[in-house]
Specification:
It is built from 21 helices and 16 strands. The strands form five sheets. A five-stranded parallel beta sheet has the order 2-1-3-4-5, sandwiched between helices. Strands 9-10-13-8-14 form a five-stranded parallel beta sheet. Helix 10 packs across helix 12 and helix 13 crosses helix 15. It starts with a strand and ends in a 13-residue tail after the last helix.
Amino acid sequence: MSRILIVEDEAIIRGALRRLLERHDHEVSEAGCVAEARELDPQSFDLVISDLRLPGEPGTDLITLAAPVPVLIMTSYASMRSAVEALKLGAVDYVAKPFDHDELLETVSRVLHQQATRQAKPPAVTDEGGQRQTMIGNCPAMQVVYSRIRKTAPADVTVLIQGESGTGKELVARALHQQSKRAAAPLICVNCAAIPETLIESELFGHEKGAFTGANAARTGLVEAADRGTLFLDEIGELPPDAQARLLRVLQEGEIRKIGSVETRHVDVRLIAATHRDLHSLSKTGEFRLDLYYRLNVMQIDLPPLRDREDDILEIADALLAKACRRHDREGLRLSRAARRVIRDAPWPGNVRELENALERGVILAESHLIHPDDLGLAAPPRQSAAPETRVMSLDESPEGDDDADTDDLSLEDYFQHFVLEHQDQMSETELAQKLGISRKCLWERRQRLGIPRKKGPRRNAG
């Protein structure tokens, strides 16, 4: 709902205009002159509609008083001279009295839309190292994201960020926090998928000394550490059921209870959650609590994948390349025309993170002042068959003595999928990662990319 200020000295016209705008879902305030409008703070509105000739100061004085809020001038003198003078002084447009209702409503709608588009600028974000950066891209989908961040950040409501892995969900969370009323308080970021299930409740909610084996001292949880600030839970779809129940109580009652404690503590935390999974679908299978989903999804921000941001890809690539060049002290490197074509046309399943990694490779491997497709690791044959890191996996033979001929026929990605699906019932995540010669984090990321869900085994009680 847009807030509009009408400044008109004739009460009949003012009232008619107010009723017209309110019928079309606008919130309207009135003033009879510039002095009265000044007391209402014209900069707090989305649009000011003012008569040109008012008692005392002219309506055009509001152009400066209301800036940057647009001012639409009404005039009974529908001459070109008065309209041009108002536009020269900075009026966004003018309408002639007596005005046509449809024409006025169309003009108001157009001005409000233009104003919203201008305000949807990429937010500036400070990263963990204190470096200030601006979110990159101006495609229509990102304009919606910027607008949603600007409107949602000050509202202090729970936010659910949806997007594929590598689209920049943490960057959006930082922007929401840094533009909120809690900006001076801490932002605590937690990747739910990176913490073992047996430890995640202790990490989030804390524990008392002796609460379980190995609890040699009391520990403050990350939820309590975020008190008066913001808690960002990335990949919240990986949160175990018991932790979901505890988190629901935080959102409903603002209370936490440490593991092993009988006392509850009040916390004031704004929660921002992110996931690449469909939580509503997970709730139907019992993997995610439906009541928690509704608590999380007060406001939703959908991040588009890089493949749907064709107009932004090369702009993002240039910015990431400049950072990589500074980091590796190779200023002056540029992308060749062929490399730019490959970057523009690639599907980017890993999104911005994958693009950043490719450019890092290019900066390291380039032998001249130009980066070529081969340097990026994006040239034919397809990247899946030329990933150096997966060669480590092929060094390990299956402990079950699989048929070598069958294994040799598999691609490296197929081998990973084949091995995990066959052995995940008998091995823990740590054992699987060790056998494959990769880290737990790499194992989890490959599961997400290939769509292999983590096997939910029987949980051990931490207490």
